[in-house]
């Protein structure tokens, strides 16, 4: 059993794997589930009592986005948040705790806190460690589901995900990827579950970790226990993004990239091969490894700047 430290890092998150094994065997290749049989493994990172304190704060709605969902469908915010309109601008004034409790306990709705990295220093520290490991940006969402609930329909994400189960348990099914490393524009592409290979079908308990490369299909539901987990979304810089930025930058000094396609096709009518060759020369003449390395350095610099007991009836879990 690994010793818990106050400052959880990327290395703690993937233990007992080491960094080299993770990047060689799993990163953008396949999921893993780490079963620890240690319900207190994430206790120094975040506990339900910490979330309770945040929900009771008067300014919580100014710090994070909050929503409730059921079977993949969002519940209207006005059902559980006091909203005021000022000059056609909606201001979220107050969380209606009684309604949150009713939706959670009676309607079996999942409660979601989004973009929570600034709420707790321990979570922020862990994300900094993740950002250093991946040369990326990241953020965390928190999901709390009642017993017998399914918050989201079967789906896949267009970013890598680490799931940290901090309380209770959740049953996960993880399938293979119908699309190789999808981008955000691919989220609406349909897939057939019956065509997918089932990779994992198991109960994830407090202290366990899941890694999901983007594109791997998954679904999760609770049975007899409440579930609370943190999801860290990893937003890696893709080659498509680097090349897109590179072309835009290059257009500042290469006039052909600023011309309309209509004018170019008309100008080179009958000599399309010459046009394609010219475009290729322009795009590759300044392209070298420094373009890729610069994106990694920029990601590192960017990061450098860079109540549950009452609501969810979780006395036993908050002890």
UniProtKB/TrEMBL annotation:
Cofactor (UniProt): Fe(2+)
Family matches, as Gene3D superfamilies: Cupin
Taxonomic superkingdom: Bacteria
All residue ranges annotated as the JmjC domain in the record: 108-251
InterPro entries referenced in this protein's UniProt entry, alphabetically: JmjC_dom, NO66-like
UniProt KW keywords: Iron, Metal-binding
PANTHER family cross-referenced by the UniProt entry: BIFUNCTIONAL LYSINE-SPECIFIC DEMETHYLASE AND HISTIDYL-HYDROXYLASE, MINA53 MYC INDUCED NUCLEAR ANTIGEN
Protein name, entry field: Cupin domain-containing protein
Species the sequence originates in: Chitinophaga rhizophila
